[in-house]
Amino acid sequence: MRPFTIEIPEEQIDDLKRRLRYSRLPGVIFQVDSQDGISLPFMRRLIDYWRDGFDWRAQEARLNQLPHFMADGHFAALEQPQALAEDIRAAFRPLRDAITQKH
Questions:
Q1: Which end of the chain is more exposed for a tag (fewer CB within 10 A), N or C?
Q2: DSSP-H helix ranges across 6-80
Q3: Quick count: other Cβ atoms within 10 Å of Cβ 45?
Q4: Helix (H, G, I), strand (E, B) or coil at 91
């Protein structure tokens, strides 16, 4: 078992942003309610947020505050799982707010 630090190469983040920028969504879709799938406006807001609003490096730094290890696979050693749950909720709060706001 050895310590592990999350270090996403900038090229991978750039590639993801490029893929998000060139995502092809339909112009319109027929949708009666949420049982028909994710709405097109919601999907557009989600893509915009992941491409332009999400701070990848801040989240990487936040996750790296936890002790991570590599053995047969990657894992984080947690002494206080409830604290991690709170951190995860806090990390996703801006995403929730960004994609649920009405245009």
A1: C
A2: 10-21, 40-48, 56-63
A3: 19
A4: helix
Alpha carbon distance 84, 55 (integer Å): 19
CA 95 – CA 50 distance, rounded (Å): 8
What does the pLDDT look like over 34-73, one tens digit per residue? Answer: 666 777 888 888 899 999 999 999 989 988 888 877 776 5
Predicted TM-score of the model (pTM): 0.62
CA distance 87 to 76: 13
* DSSP designation for 34: G
pLDDT given at position 36: 64
Please report, for residues 49, 68, 94, the alpha-carbon distance to residue 43 in angstroms, rounded to integers and kept in the order given: 10, 32, 16
Q: Where are the chain's structural domains? A: 1-6+38-103
Other C-beta atoms within 10 Å of 87: how many?
15
